[in-house]
């Protein structure tokens, strides 16, 4: 079973400030959610910027010269750049959804904390009571010791009976006050221990739930980034394979086919002698 040291009394402190520590720790949970959302938001902006840059790169590739034998290779670059842009844009979308979930969680935390503050108001009162009791107890103890020492001094110095009796009365009165303060402190202490134990357990449950949810949000972030890395790896592998599949002879053949360099050789020509039997009169001169 999960054990948490916040319910141990050694952590409440000599001034019994443990409640204040636990309460503010709970409030810090809201700050943690906000800071995590800010981090994811910044990461989303980075991914968005990268995606837009890849789109620009794809457009630049599309405008490259289509002349020469190398031109088909630009299609491979364009397709790869478009796919990479899409991968990172998909991650942006996932991160934006995650930020929305974080905002909802933050709102829920505010409600939980507001409700908890009302529920532990009695504990806060118990804390204030025991703190006040400790102060009164210390003062009454010091006063009793002071009165008793004064009475003891007068007895040893041989003071008059009247002075000694008067000091004795004050000492006994201070002793009674001291005993009453001890009783009040004991009652305040018992009430404090009971309420503080219950409250610490309540804070513990809230903190456990908070941390579990935070870890869940981080896992969602991690899985989204991991999925994108897998997709990017697949795009790079496809790019590499496409480059390997396009042979040099294929590039040359495609260039020849598209540019019409010709498949048939020009016909040969032979000398034809003019004579009166084969050529009509006057045509030989024209030839």
Automatic annotation (TrEMBL):
Q: Which domain of life is it from?
A: Eukaryota
Residue ranges annotated as coiled coil are none
List the keywords (alphabetical). Answer: Coated pit, Coiled coil, Endocytosis, Membrane
Protein's UniProt keywords contain Membrane: yes
Query: One GO BP annotation here?
Result: clathrin-dependent endocytosis
Which SUPFAM superfamilies does the protein's record reference?
Answer: BAR/IMD domain-like
Query: What are the transmembrane regions?
Result: none
Extract the InterPro entries matched here: AH/BAR_dom_sf, F_BAR_dom, FCH_dom, GMIP/FCHO2-like_FCH
What PROSITE patterns would the database entry show?
A: F_BAR
Provide the protein's localization.
Membrane, Clathrin-coated pit
| Topology term for the membrane | Peripheral membrane protein
Question: What family does the Swiss-Prot or TrEMBL record give for this protein?
Answer: Belongs to the FCHO family.
Task: Give residue ranges for domain F-BAR.
Answer: 7-251
Q: What is its main location?
A: membrane
Task: Write down the SMART domains for this protein, in alphabetical order.
Answer: FCH
Protein name, as recorded = FCH and mu domain containing endocytic adaptor 1
Question: What are the annotated GO cellular component locations?
Answer: clathrin-coated pit; clathrin-coated vesicle; plasma membrane
Q: Read off the Gene3D superfamilies from this record.
A: Arfaptin homology (AH) domain/BAR domain
